[in-house]
Fold:
Amino acid sequence: MAILEEERKQVRRKLKKILMTLIEGHAFVVLKTRNGGEIEDVLYEGVDTRMFETMWIGMNVDELPRVTPMICGVCSATHHVASVKAADQVRGAEAPPEAWRIRYLINMGIHLNNQVLHPLVFGLPDFLPVEVERRSMFALGQRHPDVVKAGVALMELGHKVVAVFGGRDIHPINGIPGGVSRKPSEEEVEKLRSLFGKHRGDLKVFVEKSFEIMLGGKEKIDAYPPGYSYMMALTGPRGEYDIVNGRVKILNGKTGSVEAEFSDRGREYLSYLKEYTVPYSYIRMVTTKWKAQSPREGTIHVSALARANAVKSYGVEWADELRDRLAEEFGKPFRHPLLSTLFRVVESAALYELIARELEKPIGDPIYSPPTRDSGEGAAVIEAPRGTLIHHYMAEEGKATFINIITPTAINAAAIEADLRGFFVGKTLGEMSDREVYAHAASIVRSYDPCMACATHAASRNRVALRIVVADENWKPIRMLRP
Amino acid sequence: MPRLERKDVYTLALVPLSGCGGCEVQALRALALAPDLQKRYRVVYWPLVVEETRLPEHVDVALVEGLVRTRENLEALREIRRRATVLIVLGSCASWGGIGGAADAFNAKLSMKAIYGREELESAEMLPRAYAPADLVPVDYVISRCPPPVEHIMLTLRAIAEGKPVKTADSTVCSQCPRKMKPIEKLEFKPGLPGPDADPETCFLSQGYLCLGSVTTVGCGAPCTRHGVPCFGCGGPYHEIAERRDMDIITALARKIATLAGLDPVKDLDKVVEKLLKVYGARRFYVFTFASQVLRGKPHGFAVKALVETRRNPVLRKRLFERIRYAETGEAPSPPGSGS
Structure:
């Protein structure tokens, strides 16, 4: 039996590889079919790894905050903040409040950038008419030049915040165990302040226009029902919108009620979350620990959508009003995966205001308190733009001994599969055109803004060029679907 | 320079290999912020940005991002080289192997086991080592750094469109760093990061910290040293180190340090190198170039030695086996100092 199974594995791999030599996207959706087209099962696959969890073993643990951002160039700053939060604990350091303010600004800056980037590059082009060829930000720019112009300005603004407080816009370096290395000069902050004064108009255009375009396609959002079981997000101790420190809450995916709560520090997360390796994917999938025997149960959705349900108030009136408007349209709790894109827009409105408020208050001293030990353990849970992110380190005599990183997309992978299954299983391929199948799968997958770079700690954030493979009942690939 | 037929509009493709996407973000910014480039280039393939899954049979200019980690990466790289007139490698991974090359410190199958609990997956086939694309196929331009500055991408694409030569970087990070080099009083190296208490105006080398600025290629604007963090070498080596067979990162740096310390840069070189190796380990000097054939082929083979040392180190092997246990059972090793 074992030999037979081994042979089957080889055949599967060989056939898949033949398909893969065509140069296309790296995120795979495999549709298992029987009786010539009836969809029986769906898999979601990530296809490479860069081995971040082993590469730094034996190296200086203090340098992890500038190594781990390189997991992902899109949200590098958020990895940086998670990394210093974990390294603080390893080194027994208490970062002073002013250092935390700088770290918050780094994370808020990249959140602002990413929450605008997603709608602009992936979310909104999806709402362009299907006949537009090569739908992209550039194509969007031809139809809605104002929204793209405003969006690009906001993205740059987010990157500027990261650059001023993090030292570099991509792969920041300012955070070190114990605090931050430098506080920006008053001139740098003043420059940012005046930019935030200047771009309010752009924010208004971006938010209102995005809402208009996406709510115009409301039936599209309704078309994809949620398939996941839980939602998870970090909030402040009293349910505030807090993306760096607080408590992690796991919500029931149907009712939105809190089912579990755990600390954002230390190894407590291990008691609530379970990681799986599946033979077909380089993403280690994550589910809740208490009710799962396989990555098909206890699936968790993390994203701006989960935050919208977990957070009591964004602390910004306009953002709360926007959320109320969506509650009227779609009801509570918010569950449809495609709503995430709208909540990214809501968050961009909140973040803009929160950053502007922070910039008004001068940054004081101290910004650093020296670490007290060189051996220890630390784990940090924070909110990345795409959802909950976990970094877990151990070190001995200053050298890293254990590194574990769970990214939002790794958590979402099982939820994406569940959503895809919920939509496709039972449908028949012959009843939809290839273009339609592709568009449906892409819409679901893309709504999670899956960062394959993060999830596999590797390449291919091919959120757009998904590869969709049709397979027979033995998972043997039959053909590829093209848009 | 490759022969590119004069045209008003060139086709542009971006092929991502195993990378982080930072380069893609920079390329996207370069195009978004330069309307003139949007007019001169038509994006025909770019999974991140354009809804198009087929790479055209021919493209005028292609950018490649990331390193070669899987067989599919290798095939993609060969295909794009065959189909593109001008091939640009973008970022440190594509130029030098980048941070992904650091994974070569351990046997790939062992790493796989430590992360996934099994040596291989049915998905893409992992190659036994990491490769820098620039080592595998002929490339026309190298835009290094992690991530490459937006302006560098703009300047290169603009020059190519106009048929003009591209300006090359011919200096080190020190030339953009505002810190003052001072003589080293006592040859002693501090292992960690400086923290905000270190002198913000004096060169890190002069203060006894490891800074790779003097051996790293210019162009980033030295943001790290300006923020009180020494250079990490993410831009890749200074061009002389890349071009001259006899020069290596660690020896070039040791020569600088010897000079600053008032030692003889030739006679005392070994002494300084030895000291650097003892405090930081050879691996630390090749964080972004560990996969590069250029650095692995250097005379004294410091990069290769680093590789062998890590793989044979029994303590590190033990760590990997602890990680394997975690991957297999979900049981994290006990925290250090807890009596294990």
Q: What stands out?
A: Chain A touches chain B through 100 residues (CB under 8 Å).
